[in-house]
Amino acid sequence: MTDFLSLWADSLPQLLAATVKVTVPLSIIAFVLALVVAVLATAMRLSRIRPLQWLSRFYVWLFRGTPILVQLFIIFYGLPAAGITLSAWTSAIIAFTLNTGAYAAETLRASVQSIPRGQLEAARTLNYTGWQTVRHVIAPQALRIALPPLGNDLIDLVKGTSLVMVITLADVFQVGRQIAATTFQPLALYAEVAVVYLAIFTVLSFLQSRLERVSNRYIRSSRA
Amino acid sequence: MLELNDVSKSFGGTPVLKQVSLQLRGGETTVVLGPSGSGKSTLLRTMNLLEVPESGCLSINGDSVTFGATLTRKQVAAIRRRSAMVFQGYNLFPHETVLENVAMPPVLNGKADRATARARATELLGKVGMDHRLQEYPDNLSGGQQQRVAIARALAVEPDYLLFDEPTSALDPELEAEVIKVMVDLARERRSLVVVTHNIGFARRVADRIVFLADGGIGFDGTPEGFFASDNERIRRYLNVFDAV
Ligand SMILES: Nc1ncnc2c1ncn2[C@@H]1O[C@H](COP(=O)(O)OP(=O)(O)OP(=O)(O)O)[C@@H](O)[C@H]1O
Ligand SMILES: [Mg+2]
Q1: Where is the signal peptide, in residue numbers (chain B) (predicted)?
Q2: Quick one: which of A7, B102, B106, B152 has the most CB atoms within 10 Å?
Q3: Residue B59 sits at the chain A interface (C-beta within 8 Å)
Q4: Mean pLDDT over each residue of chain A, to the nearest integer
């Protein structure tokens, strides 16, 4: 037992370093970019311009329909054959951005479409411009509706980043694997890696519920 | 003056309005009656361009559009500015407080700064008896209260014509009464109201004019006295339904 604990204590700094250097920044960068991509894809999907709708549907279809692992392989190992060589970091950011963006786009589209039509008619009768309707009527409500599923997309993303070791990035999982291999203590190390993920998850779900409470303040059921 | 000329509108090939012409003077309360599906909502929504007919024209106090060709945004905005709609389902913005619901539209229309719009909104909410719930969210209000806020919101954009599409149809009788009272006050102030309703009592007591729609056309256009005394068979049949209740 003391072995176990001292092993955890010895390896923790390296695991935390990998978390702070790879897992967390990759998740944050990819999630922020994914939100931008998702907003664009949603705007295209709900626009009245057919080719843009098709492009958006195609994008979501492609990235939801293939495993992230395959996407990572294509971008990092496949594209060089087509003359496009990207660093492991760039590849990871692109793959996770586009993958999460596709899921987030579906979330946003469903949220926007769940806003009652009457709200949009009210905006029209009040002579709101298209942009004012998006900014003051659609976005605030759609974001509130989208918040819980977007939080889940982020949590999936964080856990999914454990796959970057296949393209040579040393994230928390990869570092844990290396230590497990040299110390011959797979159970201790992988359990420790799991605890790191659980810690991140706990922080995120706490933030998620705080955010939901704030954004739900106008809903009757949350105040009763 | 609100004027419709030879307005025709169909949905999926089925004509709903057939060359309807109508002139509504300002300062009057016009009640639009007619059986379900006769095109009352379509007629009202056309006045605010929530529906765009295939042909005919619409003019309100000097702004006019001709249907058939594509309307520019500017044309639509100019006509829409002249009227505001009160919906059966209220359609308040649930993420805004009562005060914001009424104060934001004039701000976004570039008609007032925030401070002025808030002061004016508070005044309008006082008029409809809702100034004690300024910071409340719509979901926490009764249907009657929400509809009164919606009326204040429509007034806030200073329309020439206020359009009501069955404003009390979703309400219990006692809540209906508080909304009707607000509408009666507006009628007394000689505002220009166009009201689609199944509230025959309101039509009888408050209307300056009754327009009866039937078969996509205007079956009657005249005073309430004339309407309720009419021996036209369609009108009698329509009114009998209410007598029976
Ligand atoms: N958006 C639409 N698409 C297809 N058909 C429509 C649409 N709006 C209205 N209609 C049809 O047009 C006809 C007239 O509808 P409208 O809503 O104007 O009638 P109404 O007199 O307001 O009826 P009600 O008293 O039931 O409200 C109906 O047959 C209706 O089904
Ligand atoms: Mg109707």
Answers
A1: none
A2: B102
A3: no
A4: 93
Mean pLDDT for chain B?
95
**A4 pLDDT tier (thresholds 50, 70, 90):** confident
pLDDT exceeding 90 applies to what percent of chain A?
88
Q: Which of B41, B198, B215 to mutate to test the pocket of ligand 1 (most atoms within 8 A of CB)?
A: B41
CB-based contacts of A80, cutoff 8 Å, min separation 6? none
Separation of B39 CA from ligand 2 center, angstroms?
7
Q: What's the rounded mean pLDDT across residues A179-207? A: 94
Ligand nearest to the CA of A121: 1
pLDDT of residue A77 exceeding 70, the answer is yes
CA distance B40 to B33: 7
Query: What ipTM was reported for this prediction?
Result: 0.93
| B225 within 8 A of B55, measured Cβ to Cβ | no
The minimum-distance atom of ligand 1 relative to the CA of B38 is 21
Q: Please give the Cα distance from B60 to B75 (Å, whole number).
A: 12
Contact between A136 and B139 using a beta-carbon 8 Å cutoff: no
Question: Got the DSSP string for B146-170?
Answer: HHHHHHHHHHHT--SEEEEESTTTT
Nearest-by-Cβ selection for B81 from A127, A141, A223: A127
B72 touching A, CB under 8 A?
no
Phi, psi of A146 (to 5 degrees): -80, -15
Share of chain B above pLDDT 70, in %: 99
